[in-house]
Write a structure and sequence with these properties.
By secondary structure, this protein is α/β, with parallel strands linked by helices. The protein is built from 17 helices and twelve strands. The protein folds into three domains: 81 residues, no CATH class; 274 residues, TIM Barrel, CATH 3.20.20; 83 residues, Aminopeptidase (3-Layer(aba) Sandwich), CATH 3.40.630. A six-stranded parallel beta sheet has the order 3-4-5-6-7-8. A four-stranded mixed beta sheet has the order 9-10-12-11. A two-stranded antiparallel ribbon has the order 1-2. Pathway: tRNA modification; 5-methoxycarbonylmethyl-2-thiouridine-tRNA biosynthesis.
Length: 476
């Protein structure tokens, strides 16, 4: 009868359980191997296995200082079992539940651009070079997960992007389709040379190529195995004018996240926002005309507003077509050390809502959400002149599937995107009477649209439509 030979000793604990003492590296390898084998046995026998219990048992048996990490277990799964086990082992499946791996990155810390005109930052804003939170970007404390990854990477865009993509891959996620979210203050206020450097390195992190300019980086990114299907940039209304929009289109940007916080002129003034409500309306119009998807950041519970006026603010936001956006993020006001709001709070000049009252307010705001449909926009982009309709987003939701792969149990790559585009072309032809349909797309999805008969015109994928013979009734 054969026996395993190892350098260690077997210990019988007081509870009667066997423990094996080995050199640390060997002990960890054996523990991971046992966990993986137990998972495989569970698949063979059709049984559910408690992964956390397995990890703790193996750590106890081999007297480990910590339980095996998920990435270590995933790396040890044999190739023939990966397709079965990885969906069960995938950490935080919500990360790619929308079909896309979202990768957040941060630009270097820089002062808020409106300090030059208002003399200070917004009263509730933490972070930035002059704040109590050292080495953090404007609007962030430095303790957010994205902030900590950026600080570890010394705000290098390539290291941030590459590191996060590799991390998601090791955790079992498909990273064939990536959307970047560019955070860290007002990116468009930074010098154009730095902006070009930052965006170029994001695309290079996916393609592996070392580019000399943004245009070259995008060309290689289009051919990359890991596709950049979208780029979101955080900005402000006063840095979302025509010149800024043109630059963002050249970066491959498809969505804007706009810091607005309040649609009341007096609140914008009292909180030192540095822009007017009229500028908010103007930038929303310009961004939608250019085909961007627009997400608005709003902040209830600001000073001198009150519960009823807060609710009325959101009612106006949803009902007034000058404000309506594609997405909304709610950021209830926080009092953070080192801010102007903190000083007001210490002096008793500001009191935030009780948590129950705030929850009630948010619930009532969500109840106001209307199922509106945006109509066609007049556009000043040269590529969109004439009778042209614009598709601002095509998204088939579902667990992320690798490019060119198929899974009958998943919604992605089953032809739904093609059907949606055919419907959009029909609406553009027969209802809008358009002769052209333009799509604002991420650089990594341009090949997909080329297969559907689109070509690159400026920064848009465009298809010429046949003139409709007569109006048709919309499908129901």
């Amino acid at each position: 009868m054969g026996v395993d030979v190892f350098h260690g000793k077997v210990i019988l604990s007081n509870s009667g359980k066997v423990k094996v003492q080995l050199p640390p590296d060997e002990a960890r390898v054996r523990a991971i191997a046992e966990v993986v084998q137990a998972l495989i046995n569970g698949v063979r026998e059709g049984k559910d296995v408690d992964l956390n219990a397995l990890k703790m048992q193996s750590a106890s048996k081999y007297i480990l200082s910590r339980a095996p990490k998920l990435v270590e277990i995933i790396a040890a799964v044999p190739e023939e079992y990966r397709s079965i086990l990885l969906p069960q082992l995938r950490a935080k499946p919500i990360r790619t539940a929308s079909g896309i791996a979202v990768v957040a990155v941060m630009s270097k810390p820089h002062r808020c651009p409106h300090i030059a005109t208002t003399g200070n930052i917004c009263i509730y804003c933490p972070g930035g070079p002059d704040s109590d939170f050292e080495y953090s970007t404007q609007s962030y404390t430095g303790y957010e997960p994205t902030s900590m990854r950026a600080i570890r990477a010394r705000y290098n865009p390539y290291v941030q992007a590459r590191g996060r993509v590799d991390q998601l891959r090791k955790l079992g996620h498909s990273v064939d389709k990536v959307e970047f979210i560019l955070m860290g203050g007002t990116f468009m206020s930074l010098p154009s040379e730095y902006r070009d450097y930052f965006v170029r390195n994001l695309h290079d992190a996916l393609s592996g190529h070392s580019s000399s300019n943004v245009k070259e980086a995008i060309a290689y990114s289009e051919e990359s195995h890991t596709k950049c299907i979208g780029l979101t940039i955080e900005t402000r209304p006063d840095y979302c004018l025509t010149p800024h929009l043109k630059d963002m289109l050249s970066y491959g940007c498809t969505r804007l996240e706009m810091g607005v916080q309040s649609i009341y002129e007096d609140v914008a003034r009292d909180t030192n926002r540095g822009h007017t409500v009229e500028s908010v309306k103007e930038c929303f119009c310009l961004a939608k005309d250019a085909g961007f998807k627009v997400v608005c950041h709003m902040m209830p519970d600001l000073p001198n507003v009150g519960w009823e006026r807060d609710l009325e603010c959101f009612r106006e936001f949803f009902e007034n077509p000058e404000f309506r956006t594609d997405g909304l993020k709610l950021y209830p006001t926080l009092v953070i050390r080192g801010t102007g709001l903190y000083e007001l709070w210490k002096r008793g000049l500001y009191r935030n809502y009780h948590p129950d009252k705030l929850v009630d307010l948010v619930a009532r705001i969500l109840a106001l959400l209307p199922p509106w449909c945006l109509g066609p926009d007049d556009s000043r982009q040269p590529e969109l002149r004439g009778r042209c309709s614009v598709v601002r987003e095509l998204h088939v939701y579902g667990t992320a599937i690798a490019v060119h792969a198929r899974d009958q149990g998943k919604f992605q790559h089953q032809g739904y995107g093609t059907l949606l585009m055919e419907e959009a072309e029909g609406i553009a032809r027969f209802e809008h009477r358009s002769t052209k349909l333009a799509v604002i797309s991420g650089v990594g999805t341009r090949h997909y649209y080329r297969k559907l008969g689109y070509h690159l015109e400026g920064h848009y994928m465009v298809k010429t439509l046949e003139t409709a013979p007569s109006r048709r009734k919309r499908r129901t």
